[in-house]
Design goal:
This is TetR family transcriptional regulator. 73% of the residues lie in helices and 0% in strands. The chain is an all-alpha fold.
């Protein structure tokens, strides 16, 4: 493919970069959504393992979303933010109480899911960059520990 062909579709590098980040985000969300239909939520551990298994098999793509998008153009940062919000909403769905929620319950759910996602994004960023977490780079041990933290923070198995 020639450079002219690329610039026919994209105005410049920021638009091309954002399109790549958007595609990676879409692929991860599709991979996990196809395994978790709206009517049947997965357990937290299963959901965490889905994302981490995808990242294990697509490490460079994961690096694009978790690391490079942070320093990218505002549009790419917005894609990363929407990705994070997608998973915050999924985590909150697991926490919803039967019979309604009080405003305090809603605030706790939102804070717990946001706290967990901030941690998960930071852990994923460190992992794709090759920084040992808890003394290991073993993706399965890190995912298991992250799932356990999620259970402790959100109170949802």
């Amino acid at each position: 493919m020639s450079l002219a062909s690329i610039y026919y579709h994209f105005k410049g590098k920021p638009e091309l970069f954002t399109a790549c980040v958007s595609e990676v985000s879409r692929r991860i969300m599709n991979a996990t959504s196809s395994q978790e239909p709206p009517e049947k939520l997965l357990q937290t551990r299963e959901a965490v393992n889905l994302v981490w298994t995808w990242a294990e098999h697509h490490r460079e793509e994961a690096r694009l979303l978790y690391v490079w998008a942070v320093a990218g153009p505002p549009e790419a940062k917005a894609v990363r933010h929407r990705f994070e919000e997608f998973y915050v909403r999924r985590a909150r769905r697991r926490m919803r109480r039967v019979g309604g929620s009080t405003p305090l319950d809603f605030a706790v759910e939102r804070l717990a899911s946001r706290t967990y996602m901030s941690l998960a994004m930071g852990v994923a960023e460190a992992w794709v960059e090759g920084h040992p977490l808890g003394g290991t780079l073993d993706q399965h041990r890190i995912a298991a520990a992250l799932a356990e933290v999620s259970v402790r923070v959100t109170g949802v198995p």
